[in-house]
Design brief:
Subcellular location: Cytoplasm; Endoplasmic reticulum
Family: Belongs to the SRP72 family.
Largest sheet: none
CATH superfamily of one domain: Tetratricopeptide repeat domain
Helix content: 55-70%
Keywords: Acetylation, Coiled coil, Cytoplasm, Endoplasmic reticulum, Isopeptide bond, Phosphoprotein, Repeat, Ribonucleoprotein, Signal recognition particle, TPR repeat, Ubl conjugation
Number of strands: 0
CATH architecture of one domain: Alpha Horseshoe
Organism: Tichodroma muraria
Distance between the termini: 149 Å
GO biological process, one term: SRP-dependent cotranslational protein targeting to membrane
Number of helices: 32
CATH topology of one domain: Serine Threonine Protein Phosphatase 5, Tetratricopeptide repeat
Length: 673
Amino acid sequence: KMAAAAGAAATAAGGLWSEVNRCGQNGDFARALKSVNKILQINKDDVTALQCKVVCLIQNGNFKEALGVINTHTKVLTSDVIAFEKAYCEYRLNRIESALKTIQSASQQTDKLKELYGQVLYRLERYDDCLTAYRDLIRNSQDEYEEERKTNLSAVVAAQSTWEKVVPEDLGLREATYELCYNSACALIGQGKLNEAMKKLQKAEELCRQSLSEDSDVTEEDIEAELAIIHGQMAYIMQLQGRTEDALQLYNQIIKLKPTDVGLLAVIANNIITINKDQNVFDSKKKVKLTNAEGVEHKLSKKQLQAIEFNKALLAMYTNQADQCRKLSASLQSQSPEHLLPVLIQAAQLCREKQHAKAVGLLQDFADQHPANAAEIKLTMAQLKIAQGSVTKACMILRSIEELQHKPGMVSALVTMYSHEEDIDSAIEVFTQAIQWYQQHQAPKSPVHLSLIREAANFKLKHGRKKEAISDLEELWKQNPKDVHTLAQLISAYSLVDPEKAKVLSKHLPSSDTMSLKVDVDALENSHGATYVRKKAGKLTGDNQQKEQGQGEVKKKKKKKKGKLPKNYDPKVTPDPERWLPMRERSYYRGRKKGKKKDQVGKGTQGSTTTGSSELDASRTASSPPTSPRPGSGVAVSTTSNVIPPRHQKPAGAPATKKKQQQKKKKGAKGGW
């Protein structure tokens, strides 16, 4: 009975294996997996069945389950049997370090393991080892995957150029595919050859369209989706060239396509945030969500991820999220303690909170802990001190940067700052130290050295240090005795200190004959530009001189033109003191007569009652006050009906109305004598 049962099991297993084979050839791995499971029910330790199950799970994308099967049956599925499948599952699950250990522990390095080894090294950003691995593969392989290996090799070269700033070597690859063209363009971007890179990308776009248009099943949307990464790189070049509007437009077009590559979307969103800077922060806050998508950390390089985190911290600072900014910058600093940006972001946030002293202390601590990066930190500290008005302390910080003390830019900045503080001695000391450095480390006749001596001499002459300036000018003249400009400066300086010495040195000047210029004076005077130049007066003799002197006397006798007087002016009559006031504001103004039969209409405020003409007639009441007060007199407020409306009342005091009167005069107020 047992023999019969074993035979039946073998017959059943044979049928199942046929089913597995047929499904595998048809690509139906889900159905094949069912048959494999049935085989394992018969014999749970069947090595071949377990291998087939792992392969089926991998083909169906169930990498975690496949790795679980491998780890559960370690006694049966040894590393020699299942090394590639295990390493591949770890690679796809982004366990890159584990995949590397699995590959290295395999007893036999098959071609499949070597291919996977290259991919693992690329993900670990070990580009030198990766380049060696792919070169070995291309050299020792001859199959239909040669083009893919060359593409991977060019990708490694592009990564070296972009992230490690290594000048790529010419691999001699024929750029017949758009992938190769794209990688070549990336390598050129890393070298800063943006125009050449743009041409390569345009060629890659053309090749991509040609390649995909040959397939009738590919739609225009599919082509645009494939071109998205090429267009994204084009936009990046535009951004580097300063064409931010064009770059922003292209970035937004790519986002509208909704590509499935989360890495591409994250990079584009980050680049848009860098264009926005501290403007349009609402758009930046929306875009930053794309950088937080699941799986982004496995699609981008470490430097790309680091740049995105830096921009998140800056965005938090721009949106006044101080706690979030501190949290992100502290996290970045813990990941890269030697990196400058996290500390600079923290210092910037402290400055926004008006804590300048604390920001300077933070920068000083970092400079003490990381002397290699101290120069950039100290420059920032000096900038903060200048913002606080502590120019002298800023100068002390700048002078502590030894590797920059002798640089012309640093010397110029220090001299300017010391001059602003009127500390001329310290400024001259900066010049002296820089000149001494060049004397010790470079040839004395170097252009920078001579330029510093000349600038020092000019500075000393400007601030009255003539003897010190003469010493510098003599040094310059010794270096180049044919320098007429330096000699002229030296003579000019000596003329203020030692005129006799200046006369002696003047003998070294070239004669006027050697310095004469062949100039056609008549042509120069008749030229177009000469008509706009006032000629200098020369020596005059005889009649011309007398004529000129006579003209000068006439000019001296010229008097100021008298002002015009009015036609009815009478010098015997005293002018009206109120002539500058408008007629309505004069004390004797009685208003215009509007006819005997018509009642006069009052000009009071809205709602006031109108009185009869008899009450407004000033001739009937001898004691009635004038309707318009004289300048300087007080205004009596009455409760009777003949009160003066507010708009016609004059201010109480004359001094208070003087300015107003002058303004009205300028506007052309009517008046008379």
